[in-house]
## 1
Amino acid sequence: MKPKSFSYLRPDNLLETLQALQRFGDDARIMAGGLSLVPMMNFRLLEPRYLIDISGLASLAYIRETPAEVEIGAAETQAKVLAWPNLNKSLPLLTLAMPHIGHFQTRSRGTVCGSIAHSDPSSELPLCLMTLQGSVVLQSADATRVLSAGEFQIGMFATARRPDEMVTAVRFPVRKPGAGYAFFEMAQRQGDFAICAVAATVSGSAVRLGVGGVADKPTVRDWPELADGEIDDALNDFAWDLGGSDDIHANAAYRRDLVRKLGRRVIEEARKCSN
Amino acid sequence: MLELKAGERHPIKFTLDGVEVRGFAEPRMLLSDFLRHELGRTEIHIACEQGVCGACTIMLDGNPARSCLTFAVQAIGRRVETVRSLSPADGKLNDLQESFRRHHGLQCGYCTPGILVSSEAFLRDNAKPSEKEVREMLSGHICRCTGYAGMVDAILETAEKRATTAAS
């Protein structure tokens, strides 16, 4: 339950951070809040030789809104984002989803980008990013590239990030006028990892449902139209296609059932909120 | 850039409950272990070491933090507070602690220091919490004696009393 030995680096700016990554590559890990990384180090699932602490980098602790997107920097905590006055107006899905992330005591240090970089298949922010079709900004000492959420997260704890890159920001598209949003999750305890999490957006007749905690990464399905009588069949197909597996928290059949039940619930709720 | 090499003990200096403290730690040393084993602060209770149980919760620069998910080297130059910072004087309890005692908000007491630190931070941000909000906040802690009802009462009563005092 103690981490393996590592060297600790606290860069003074982004450039130093990227240079350290370029030097140490796969031997290094970026730490922001450490809420996901340090447990994995304590369990020795991860044994980085260099830990690069960016939690104090003020230049990465920001929320920036443009008419199309909200960009959140790598050092911005979940607590700050939850307290951001525009959150409900611009990103209503996050207002609904973020209270499910950990607890008051962990959101104070856990970051939005860290959660997305960690890419746990059952965590809320990767699901929201995927459902809203947001993007991830990856920077190395040489270049910057922007990947869509779907290009970024390729599997369970697996992303398209290269060893010399870090996630410097994520971008969430702002609320579409008239669209409705809903989120729900089933967990054993408030703040625990979701057994199944669902996020729905409804825009006109179009319905989109994102599901986390079932497949190896958050998965989204779109229906251009979905009549009331078709919802059950559509959700049943989706639930089987997700191919969930058994673990100590729930078996695959229960997870499929949650997709069917919770999926309907959030689609109906999102419809009520849309106009 | 601050660079602290693996396997070497580095000087650590920070403010603990208003007093400057010093010690030595390797980068891998958790802040929880540093507080307990280097500084003898046994009010830091360690249970899960994965951030789930909340027993080791402290305040880092005024915000609640799991000391088992923080490295001692991260505390360099910062402000750390434990449950001791709550008491107004040695051997005295503050109003929240008194309220916990009155409402039997603890049984074995193992989870209590972390819960008191969290509750104090929570009340600072949310002076008039609802019962639901208090319960949600407490979901960040595990009490295996399952004595949550008394804690909820104690926190709500403290909030109410503080609001009355502030108004008068």
Note: The mean pLDDT of chain B is 96.
## 2
Amino acid sequence: MESREKHADELFKEFRETSITEFFRKNRAHLGYSGKLRSLTTVVHEIVTNALDACEEAGILPEIRVRIDALNSEHYRVFGADNGPGIPLKHISDVFGKMLAGTKFHRNVQLRGQQGIGIAGVTLFSQITTGKPIKVRTSTGNGRVYEVELMIDITKNRADILSKEEYAEYWRGTELDIEIKGVKFNLSERGPFEYLRRTAIANPHARIIFIDPEGRKTVFERSSERIPKPPMAIKVHPKGLEVDDLINMSKVTKARKVSSFLVNTLSRMSNAKVREIQEHVSFDLNKNPRRLTWAECEEIINAIEKIKFLAPPTEGLEAIGEEQIRNAVLNILDPEFEAVVTRPPKVHSGGIPFLVEVAIAYGGHAGRVVGDGIKCEIMRFGNKAPLLFDAGGCAITKAVNSVEWKRYGIRDFENSPITVFVNLVSTYIPYTSAGKQSVAEDREIMREMRFALMEVGRKFHVYHSRKRRALEREARKQILLKYSIELASGLAKLTNKNEDKILKELQNLIEERITGMEIEEAEEGIAGEELEPTLEGESEDNSEAHREIEEVE
Amino acid sequence: MERQKVISKLTHLGGEITNEIMLHGSPKIRIPQRSIGNIHFNEKENLLELGDKMSTRSFLNVAHSRKFMQTILIASKCKEFVSRNKTASIRELYYQLKHTIPGTRENTFDDQSESDPLIVDLEIALGVLREELHLKADDKGTLIGRITIEDSGDFIDCSKLGRSGLSIPSIVEHYRFHDVEADYVLVIETGAMFDRLVEEKYHLKNNCIMVSTKGQAARGCRRLVHRLNHELKLPVIAFTDGDPWGYYIYSVMKAGSMALAHESKRLGTPKMKLVGMTMTDIDTYGMEKVTEKLKDVDKRRINELLQYPWFQRKEWKEELNLMSKKGVRIEQQALASKSLEFVAEEYLPEKIAKKQMLP
């Protein structure tokens, strides 16, 4: 065992010494750069994500432009521009030129940029495929604009600034001009266009303009003026902690003892809990946290598994919100019907808070045009970022397909003009692989998604049967009106009363009855609607995440 | 019933519905049910009777709307007939009412089969007879034999009508009977057998009145047989094919039908008996070779008859079970396998003399 143990410092040292290019090549797939289409989508993703996150943190309503020009076969130029806060000169090099420099690494925050290696990866990808630097133009709005060309010095993992220009102009934002090779553009479900369309739905506060290589311009208009609150950094809950997280955190802490390190770093960790941990570990928790070994960290994690902790707080979760999603869906899909559900927060993996947002859109531009027909489309999101790849193995796809849509009046789900939107919000989303495009099948997450889907399904059912009944009512009215002329004439002959008067009253009566039926239906609601099923006897509103007094095991 | 009373009943029906419309209520007509669930067999009288279950035809129920409208059209037309003292055939009524509904491509009536049952509905709903509504059906059935019938002042000697006999009209209320010399009435299912017996002068040789129903007996035919039995005390003997259909024709003549259960008392002849064809005839007269195999539909009909309360007599259950067991049916005309004269000279006289008949 001793021989396998490595001090974290050593790990870091080794990493730096490894060629970053090597690292990139070995991990291309994990970083989102596998496949010609996917690589291009990843580049767009990194640019847009960077812009959205920056705007959100600065409280700016984002306006993002993306243009892709085809320069040659499999050779493109990607131009991205935002109206974000801009990047101060001294940070340009870190943001675009340093791999794994993201601030997220040590913050347990729900950010979109959970995948890929950030915008520096784009620099590297451009550099590897074309040998050219990327061009950055940015200003914080202070009157100074910087235009920089940079590459990554792959031995030192830092930016190599090739040219720098500074001039006066009152403008704010960031523009990127990037050339890449070995990629391909198309309009398929996994391409940049679809990526931006879905991003627009999940970010209704953003205005996104896209110009494709054919010169076609699409504007996804903003449907909300509300800028999402930047998610707060929350401490990691012990139950959601893994050994490598712990060891990484131990390297940057200012605490002098492991005990205080744990209390300061982790959520719901008290001195009493530390004392409990002490009983389960073989070393003294008063030691310097920087000297923690992998094995010791493992011991701590094992101890945590045996101890009960309060459920984590949920403030770290930032949902898009029902109203926002509805606006976005109406704006982009213009459907005949839509329903949105945001579920209350729950926990997965024993302590990680998450929540599920689901929307269904029917008719209008909902669904995916395939050939002459329309098929259903499932839009998957992880923390508002569209998940375009590996749909088959994804828990979201499985949850959608596990719902018996027939029950909700959708006879042929596959071939209906339906868009199902699922956004999974969590400080930590369990992905099936490092590609981070496919959510792992966690029991709690599946359950929540199914509940949310069934809830929108029921809403659809109500709408659908109302619509059907309205048609039936109209047909009924027409039948009655048709026969009333003859009936009035027969009655007039039988009774010697005025035919026109009888007919008029008969028509009034029919009108009254049909309206009455409408009202009755509205009052009744929908008959035979089933309630949300509870699984294995669990009570529905047993929302651990809400009741922090309760203890989780 | 007085014409005036019929008119007032029709007007009342229309008035109630019109009131309901003015009050914005639910216009409806209540009609006694004519399904098996509302038909009772009165064992003492040996007649089918209509129970008191009602069904409601509501205009606002789209499944009823068309029929409702049609019923009212028929009622208004009948009121016109009665007022003008005209009697129309049910086919004439159909043509009088048939037209395209304004603003549609739909007809008020598409077929006479739509109007006929509604006439019966109206009869029962109002408690009036078809003839009181001044409606008549086509003539159906024929009579021949030693009886003189007075019809609107004319005297008809029914033994002097050649081979064709008297065509029986749908309304026979006005008939007066004179010079009855016959001993009994023989009711024959098929026209062909009737013709055979006429040619053999059976009615003259055996001193009877012969009536042919030509299939299921029409109301006029049933009413006439009823009157011959009740007013003249003539015994009535039926002669049908030996199959469930023939037996059902007999049962309708005898006990009444489900469709006209409300009129059983006026139409039924409970004391009627059946001379043939029976299953035992097949063995007695050695006619195995001239039987026909039962079809599935025949078998189903046998089982239905076995369920009816008015087929529960021992003799009938035996007859129907025997038919099932043999799996065959036998037609009246199969008797011709012996000789053309056999039916008139041997079969009927023998069986009637020996009273070999089913109740």
Note: The longest helix of chain A spans residues 443-495.
